[in-house]
């Protein structure tokens, strides 16, 4: 009986525990359901309130804050950005890829950006192509981008798309290299240029906005009152020299047209597929496009010269935020041949060039005279480089103009290009040969894994270059021209934030930058000079190898003949129809250029709305009173660069020296 009672008590205890567990589970279930129901009610209430607020905001959105008189919309952005400390590092960029194995970020074309809303301190923000807040303020971020959106077609044509541009947009006409919309030290990218802008050169903060991109006209004047730069509200722009000659024209459609003092007109146009067309005369120039090989992006240029097509390949890099194209040979010579070309010959040789009676040599006869004899291949290649540069410049002059060229230089017993300067060129030729010899030891590493630092800055040495295309540069407070065949020497690695490097003029022709002047040259222009030197030396080395033992040239060693191909060499062929594309671009420029020039004349004369005016020689305070605080300041000692959304102003000793 006692045992039965014990069992009954144990059973009752177990039953009680089970009932408690069941009751607890039911309580928790009911509590969870009640919480869920309450959350749904709160969400519905919040959603209804949000919708009511959105409708109210659409009906009563405050109007955009007006821009002060004499200030463009881009200036309003700059003022809205005053709260950000000048000189702070730019916001972190979102890249749609880094080194060449990249793909551009998604783009939601056709979406609108802030219709009538205030941009506040935000510049160039994009959100994967989504609409940016119709009405109201967009935020306080500066220069933010997401996946390369709203980076307008331009930039270097290849590996990277949508890098940050220091708070500025990369407008149509960017660098022609391997990156689209890359960071560019606050500079605008444009599709290259010979006079004023090399292929792949930035234009120092200017933007070539599409129609409607500016709120009003803007005129920058020289100290004498003559117009320097005229920007129209429709995106057109005209830049003039102090004498009144047109130097550069930008059309609302995106064409960039440069005029060199020689009369050569250079037209640059971006086409679909990141194709950049650069025409220097009907049927002269090149077409550039991306080229992908083994999951790496390169840049190919298809040239047309004297009716002959050929192609070159370049490796795209970003150096200090500046996109560059570095020439990459398609074929390397044997090490023994480089050694033969690097060292002196056993005895001096006499050589007669086939161009001694050509018109171009007579034209430049007072500037350049070849050596009477040659003791080494490097001296022969030096004359080969100079002659090729001057011949190409002369032919472009003829192709661009229907009238005969100006008279030749007066005869000189001592040419302007002295033996001392030519020796500096020969020393540089030796360095370039040695560099290519080193690359030939490991071709794959040279093609795929080379440093992003340009070779001209990798050794912290001075380098001597022959100017390959006419450039407009700054020398102190003045502008001057470097023309084809002039010789400059870099003065070392430029400061970290500078898009330019200083160089000294070693040799020049009349009406150009004077000998001994220190000039500021865009880093991208210097890279194009080195590209030109290496391209020309490769052709010269080929002529030495194939023509050795002929016309008085020594023959190279028998075991030094032959070449080693780069991995992509067999896939590189000049594009078809290049000559027709070049002619078409030149014709389009004929139709649009004069219209922009006529419009600029009306703006400069005061016809229509009053433009914003900045003059050379103004102080920093005067400029800030007109433009507001800049988005970025580049401090280079006595030289300071103020970067705004649509303009870049250079001060030297506190006064305006250049506006771009």
Gist of the model:
By secondary structure, the protein is an alpha+beta fold. It contains 11 helices and 26 strands. Helix 5 crosses helix 6 (419-440) and helix 5 crosses helix 9 (523-547).
Structure, described:
- Strand 6 (246-250) and strand 7 form a beta hairpin.
- This protein has 11 helices and 26 strands.
- The longest helix is centred in the N-terminal third of the chain and has 59 residues, at 2-60.
- The protein has a 12-stranded mixed β-sheet with strand order 13-12-11-10-9-8-7-6-5-4-3-22, with helices on both faces.
- It has 2 domains: 73-302 and 584-659, no CATH class; 329-565, no CATH class.
- Helix 3 (335-342) packs antiparallel against helix 6 (419-440), helix 5 packs across helix 6 and helix 5 (377-400) packs across helix 9.
- It starts with a helix and ends with a strand.
- The protein is of the alpha+beta class and 660 residues long.
- Mean pLDDT is 74; it is low at 52-213.
Overall tally of domains: 2
Distance between the termini: 110 Å
Q: Spans of 5+ residues with little confidence (pLDDT < 50)?
A: 52-213
Main sheet summary? 12 strands, mixed
Helix content percent band: 25-40%
Mean pLDDT: 74
Query: How many β-strands, per DSSP?
Result: 26
Helical stretch tally: 11
The helix/strand class is: alpha+beta
Provide the spatial order of strands within the biggest beta sheet. 13-12-11-10-9-8-7-6-5-4-3-22
Give the overall silhouette: extended
The percentage of residues in β strands lies in 15-25%
Q: How much is the radius of gyration in Å?
A: 32 Å
């Amino acid at each position: 009986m006692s045992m039965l009672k014990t069992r009954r008590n144990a059973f009752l205890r177990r039953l009680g525990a089970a009932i408690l567990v069941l009751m607890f589970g039911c309580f928790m279930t009911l509590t969870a359901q009640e919480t869920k129901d309450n959350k749904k009610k709160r969400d519905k209430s919040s959603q209804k309130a949000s919708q009511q607020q959105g409708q109210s905001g659409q009906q009563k959105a405050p109007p955009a804050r007006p821009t002060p008189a004499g200030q463009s919309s881009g200036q309003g952005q700059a003022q809205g950005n005053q709260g950000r400390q000048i000189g702070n590092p730019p916001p972190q960029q979102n890249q749609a890829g880094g080194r060449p194995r990249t793909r551009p970020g998604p783009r939601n074309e056709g979406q609108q950006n802030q219709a009538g809303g205030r941009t506040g301190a935000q510049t160039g923000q994009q959100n994967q192509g989504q609409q940016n807040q119709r009405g109201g303020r967009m935020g306080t971020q500066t220069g933010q981008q997401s996946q390369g959106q709203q980076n307008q077609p331009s930039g270097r044509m290849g590996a990277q798309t949508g890098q940050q541009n220091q708070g500025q947009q990369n407008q149509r006409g960017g660098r022609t290299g391997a990156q689209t919309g890359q960071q560019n030290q606050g500079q605008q990218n444009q599709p290259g240029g010979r006079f004023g802008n090399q292929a792949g050169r930035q234009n120092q903060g200017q933007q070539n906005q599409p129609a409607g991109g500016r709120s009003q006209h803007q005129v920058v004047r020289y100290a004498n009152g003559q117009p320097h730069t005229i920007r129209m509200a429709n995106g057109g722009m005209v830049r003039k020299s102090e004498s009144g000659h047109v130097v550069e024209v930008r059309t609302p459609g995106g064409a960039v047209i440069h005029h060199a003092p020689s009369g050569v007109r250079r037209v640059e146009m971006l086409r679909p597929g990141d194709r950049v067309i650069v025409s220097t005369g009907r049927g002269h120039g090149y077409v550039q496009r991306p080229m992908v090989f083994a999951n790496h992006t390169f840049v190919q240029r298809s040239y047309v010269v004297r009716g002959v097509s050929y192609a070159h390949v370049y490796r795209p890099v970003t150096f200090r935020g500046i996109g560059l194209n570095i020439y990459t040979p398609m074929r390397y010579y044997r090490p023994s041949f480089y050694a033969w070309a690097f060292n002196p010959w056993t005895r001096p040789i006499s050589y007669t060039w086939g161009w001694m009676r050509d018109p171009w040599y007579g034209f430049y006869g007072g500037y350049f005279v070849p050596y009477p004899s040659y003791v080494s291949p490097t001296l022969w290649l030096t004359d080969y480089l100079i002659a090729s540069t001057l011949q190409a410049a002369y032919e472009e002059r003829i192709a661009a103009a229907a009238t005969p060229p100006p008279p030749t230089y007066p005869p000189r017993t001592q040419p302007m290009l002295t033996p001392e300067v030519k020796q500096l060129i020969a020393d540089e030729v030796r360095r370039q040969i040695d560099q290519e010899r080193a690359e030939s030891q490991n071709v794959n590493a040279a093609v795929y894994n080379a440093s992003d630092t340009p070779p001209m800055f990798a050794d912290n040495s001075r380098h001597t270059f022959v100017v390959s295309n006419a450039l407009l540069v700054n020398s102190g407070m003045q502008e001057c021209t470097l023309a084809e065949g002039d010789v400059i020497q870099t003065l070392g690695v430029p400061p970290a934030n500078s898009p330019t490097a200083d160089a000294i003029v070693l040799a020049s022709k009349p009406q150009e930058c004077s000998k001994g002047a220190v000039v500021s040259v865009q880093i991208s222009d210097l890279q194009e000079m080195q590209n030109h030197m290496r391209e020309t030396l490769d052709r010269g080395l080929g002529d030495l190898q194939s023509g050795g033992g002929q016309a008085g040239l020594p023959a190279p060693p028998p075991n030094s003949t032959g070449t080693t191909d780069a991995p992509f060499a067999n896939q590189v062929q000049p594009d078809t129809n290049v000559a027709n594309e070049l002619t078409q671009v030149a014709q389009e420029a004929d139709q649009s250029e004069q219209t922009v020039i006529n419009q600029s004349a009306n703006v400069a004369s005061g016809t229509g709305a009053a433009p914003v005016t900045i003059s050379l020689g103004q102080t920093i305070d005067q400029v800030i009173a007109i433009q507001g605080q800049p988005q970025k300041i580049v401090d280079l000692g006595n030289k300071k660069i103020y970067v705004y959304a649509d303009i870049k102003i250079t001060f030297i000793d506190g006064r305006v020296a250049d506006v771009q």
